[in-house]
Specification:
binds iron/sulfur cluster
């Protein structure tokens, strides 16, 4: 037997970007563990990625190109050669373009592999040259991205290890025990040293149980709490006016907009007792360094963009920057000086943009032109997009040709016309960038691809050639594309080659307003950015009421769990997943633990068992994000009842605006 330990890095859609050690025996991955190369992730990884060998070699792994031969959804596929598969894909793309125009082609991808070569490289070049519809990738981080960039222009956030210097940590709409786990030990260390912890989340999460204060708003109520805090600082004479005068624009307007938001009004809008909101504000005012870690849970409702903006405005208003462990952490993906345009090698065409959150509507109702070829990669839309029943009906269209290029038989692959086997990140080269930890890696394959799997780079380059769209000088290989990506920074290139990992120009432990400053045009914080103000339906910081109705009184939330990364690895979660409901909501509905229930609204329904959970706030029910059809009795998931409405900023998804009723299904 041959055995070796090789290095890699995790590109999955998680902030931490762990450095990895991979044990390979006889050409197969047998164990994946953390390495110490990245000091933030420091030798340990999550349980999800420890299951990589099962993912690589399990029965769901796609090993050969397949063509559908039975009715859609019947699961009848026939293995074909790559030559046949690529010819078929090229023929369908060519046909659609000639008959309907390039916009009848819709590439559909998001986050299934966050590697920088696996998305927006050869794939982007192909679809741009085809004149395909452009995809607005808004299912996650659209509202947070708009808010953070609008206010700070992607300023680097507080590094995770610096949380140990904080005297107050606020976790707002984020559950690091399930995702982004490497923050947890730094929080624990800070608490041991006397730091206080506040958690704002509709659930009593594991860290909320250890917090000094837990605020449990109804989804969408976070904005009211943040505005009440902003008002309090100004009205109590506690706002750092000197800092605002020097570093911010729009603070007078922000103050005006926050003025109506008394603590009492915020209590009514968020359903959090006024005493708790005031206790949070006073604790924040009294603590320094104080850090706010905003998560993606806060954005998943109609007020999401403004809520994130208001939470990110707080450290500016309260004067919390300029010290180690003080400020905020959101996404750090924008701090890297990388030339992604060069890697793509083709300017963006002015073709129509399709918002991915409206996939169902697009497939069923758009006629200008209709989508004729849907090319899905790094994504499982049937599991992850809102208004799931509409997506299902759209994918069932007989005249639609769907390609799914993935590593395993996902729900979406099972209704595709052509299924292509993709390599896993341990089987191809990539460039991996963290958006929590400050780490960039160049990774190389540690094993040969399983079966006939091919990388995104290979397949999209081949399609460019078959369609006659390749041009002399195109960058195609991983080495060429990596060189183009890192060309703006000689230092990053050297560190990658020498150490296998690089840090950004601001360093791995930037202090906000010491090492990292707003990357807006004037390097100031824009507290009421004009563009965002125009975009939000009620202007930025405008509060939209809860969409609750008498018929659908319960708010369904669908946060991440520790078992999948979005829907990635969902094939390994083989059990049925219950909906969690507070005992006070279960009792009047005659629901007991283990009963089969129907969670429903006008969009659809999910049938699952019920689990009683007193850690939820009453009025809120919980069914995890990332489930697949095999996880429920109905084959539908939380997204079947999630609306395809948009967040106030960024046209993001409003999963947590699902308002539902739950009833017992008679046995
Ligand atoms: S998913 Fe996150 S925690 Fe798990 S191995 Fe990847 S980067 Fe690390």
């Amino acid at each position: 037997m041959t055995a070796e330990i090789l290095t890699s890095a995790c590109p999955l859609d998680c902030p931490d970007a762990c450095s990895l050690e991979v044990r390979v025996e006889d050409g197969r991955v047998v164990k994946v563990d953390g390495s110490h190369l990245n000091p933030v992730t420091d030798g340990y990884i999550c349980a999800k990625v420890r299951r990589t060998p099962e993912h690589l070699y399990g029965p769901e792994r796609l090993l050969h190109p397949c063509r559908r031969v039975g009715p859609r959804g019947s699961g009848e596929y026939q293995a074909i050669s790559w030559d046949e598969a690529l010819d078929l894909a090229a023929e369908k793309l060519r046909e659609a373009r000639e008959r309907w125009g390039g916009e009848s082609i819709l590439p559909f991808c998001y986050g299934g592999s966050n590697g920088l070569l696996t998305q927006d490289a050869n794939d982007g070049r192909l679809f741009r040259r085809l004149g395909a519809s452009r995809l607005a990738r808004t299912v996650c981080a659209a509202a947070t991205g708009r808010a953070a960039i609008g206010l700070y222009g992607k300023m680097a956030g507080v590094a995770l290890p610096d949380f140990r210097h904080s005297r107050l940590i606020v976790l707002w709409g984020v559950n690091p025990s399930a995702s982004g786990i490497h923050l947890v030990p730094h929080i624990q260390e800070a608490q041991k040293a006397g730091a206080r912890l506040v958690v704002i989340d509709p659930r009593r999460t594991p860290l909320a149980k250890k917090a000094d204060l837990h605020l449990a708003p109804r989804p969408g109520g976070d904005l009211a709490i943040a505005l009440a805090a902003i008002r309090w600082f100004f009205e109590e004479g506690q706002a750092d006016l000197a800092f605002l005068a020097e570093h911010a624009t729009g603070w007078e307007e922000l103050r005006r907009r926050a003025l109506p938001w008394t603590v009492e009004r915020a209590a009514e809008a968020s359903a959090v007792p006024a005493g708790e909101i005031e206790a949070f504000i006073r604790l924040y005012a009294a603590s320094s360094p104080a850090v706010i870690r905003t998560g993606w849970g806060m954005e998943r409702n109609r007020n999401g963009g403004s809520a994130v903006a208001a939470a990110l405005a707080l450290p500016a208003v309260a004067g919390k920057f300029g010290v180690r462990g003080g400020g905020y952490t959101m996404s750090n993906s924008g701090v890297w000086n990388l030339d992604t345009a060069a890697a793509m090698g083709e300017p963006e065409p002015a073709t129509r943009t399709i918002n991915m959150n409206r996939l169902g509507e697009t497939l069923l109702e758009r006629a200008d032109p209709p989508v004729q070829v849907l090319f899905v990669y790094n994504c499982n839309p049937l599991a992850t997009m809102p208004n799931q029943e509409k997506v299902r009906r759209g994918l069932a269209r007989e005249d639609l040709f769907t390609v799914v290029f993935d590593q395993v038989w996902t729900d979406s692959a099972r209704v595709a016309d052509l299924v292509l086997p993709a390599t896993h990140f341990l089987e191809h080269s990539d460039v991996v960038r963290g958006y929590g930890s400050y780490a960039l890696y160049r990774t190389r394959p540690v094993v040969a691809p399983a079966g006939e799997a091919r990388s995104n780079l290979e397949v999209f380059a081949e399609l460019l050639h078959r369609l006659g769209l390749a041009r002399p000088g195109d960058l195609e290989t991983a080495d060429e594309l990596t060189a183009a990506l890192v060309r703006p920074s000689e230092r990053v290139r050297t560190e990658l080659e020498r150490d296998g990992m690089a840090v950004p120009d601001c360093g791995a432990m930037p202090v906000q307003f010491v090492d990292a400053f707003p990357l807006t045009a004037d390097h100031k914080i824009h507290l009421v950015p004009e563009a965002l103000d125009r975009e939000a339906p009620l202007g930025i910081y405008g509060f939209q009421a809860d969409p609750v109705t008498e018929r659908y009184p319960l708010a369904l939330i669908s946060p991440a769990t520790g078992r999948t990364i979005s829907s990635t690895l969902g094939q390994l979660v083989r059990d049925q997943i219950p909906v969690e409901i507070h005992p006070d909501d279960a009792a009047p509905r005659g629901i007991s633990a283990g009963d089969v229930v129907r969670v429903w609204n006008d969009l659809g329904e999910v049938r699952v068992a019920a689990r009683l959970n007193a850690d939820l706030r009453p009025g809120v029910v919980f069914l995890p994000k990332g489930l697949w059809s095999h996880n429920t009795l109905s084959g539908t998931t939380a997204n079947a009842v999630a609306p395809d409405t948009f967040t106030d900023l960024g046209q993001g998804a409003c999963f947590n605006d699902a308002r539902v009723e739950v009833e017992r299904v008679p046995s």
